[in-house]
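Q: Give me the 3D complex with flavin-adenine dinucleotide.
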Amino acid sequence: METRNEDIPIIGSGTIGGYTGYLLEKEGFNVTLYEDHEKIGEPCHCTGIITKSFLDMVHLKKGLLLNTLSRVKVFGPDGNSAELKTEDIVVDRIGLDEFFNELAVKEGAVLKTGHKMVSCDPLHKTATIQHKDTARLLSYSRLIGADGPNSRLFPLLNPSIRRKPWIGAQAVIRGKFDKGMYETYLNNDYCKGFFAWVVPESEESAIAGLAVSERPSFQFERFMKKRFGEKFKDKVMSYRGGLIPMHYPKARCEKDGMFLVGDAGGHVKATTGGGIIPGMKAAQALAESFKTGKRYDTLWRKATGRNLWAHLKIRETLDKFSDHDYNYLIELMNKKRPANLIAHSDREYPGAFALKMLLAEPRMLSFLKHVF
Ligand SMILES: Cc1cc2nc3c(=O)[nH]c(=O)nc-3n(C[C@H](O)[C@H](O)[C@H](O)COP(=O)(O)OP(=O)(O)OC[C@H]3O[C@@H](n4cnc5c(N)ncnc54)[C@H](O)[C@@H]3O)c2cc1C
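A: Here is the predicted complex, encoded as structure tokens.
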């Protein structure tokens, strides 16, 4: 497969667009990144919590690692909690997007900020790019959509899938926090279908919020008042929000010279909304596909598809949990063996984890009623 000197436009230069541009430049392609916003990484919508295995994938630039987390406290609807060991990090999210884009540009990519793809014509293989008052027709032989959860390209590849994203609402808030521990809240009251979180960046600040399918502002305010008090707004430094796409196992991410990667392709864990690592794995699969001519849809499924499917199944199971089930889950998490297992498992591989958990704590079988 010829890889030298082919021009590859990438639409969207967020985390995964930047990383994909970097990988493809390394393979000898001529990448141009088209980014709607003027500033890379802004507006920021993400929390920035990632499993520590991220550090095996990237040699992170100094200053981007904000915090290391070794414990998580999971709260059930009745207020009881289980404290578990974990290995996570918190990264500077704007900085991470800038870093990936810097890497791409250093390898030779051209970055065009303030350039928005306003339409795409797959039949004639053209896309219209708007920059200020000027629209330009771009011809492509291969086009990459890294244009996030609201991707304009996704429906062209998957006309029969109607996307239903979660809506995340969060704030960076001042306070006193246990720097090594984050909090998650599971209940059907204010965060039905997802969860709420408090993730410390330092001892003095944390990112707190939730994701839901409906009424995000209303539920966010309820959670924040419960956790930080009626006057929580006085302590808020900034607000963040955005869409978290669902993972669609049958979605096509390759068709007629168009390729989807990252949130645009639904490469996101349905349990946590984490999309950085799965998106990077899909980007690696895309680079391999361009290099070898192997099918991208086969490669990304092999790299991350099975795990994303397992996350989706766990999410579908959790969606059926009553508050009573959540309370019971917290009770079981307080048992020694499940707690140990959680401590030594990687969230990236949920299938193996669920199986080990069932073996360690057979009472987990009571939740099987929600699986079938
Ligand atoms: C509230 C919230 C919290 C999250 N927390 C975490 C977390 O803690 N850990 C984690 O791993 N993941 C988290 N995520 C998910 C994570 O942010 C995404 O998976 C990740 O940013 C995906 O990167 P991306 O490049 O695919 O998409 P994006 O980061 O959304 O980037 C897409 C880019 O495309 C640009 N774009 C869009 N349309 C066009 C167009 N037509 N033309 C040109 N440019 C365009 C956008 O401006 C944007 O810059 C969270 C998401 C949300 C909403």
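A quick observation: The mean pLDDT is 93.
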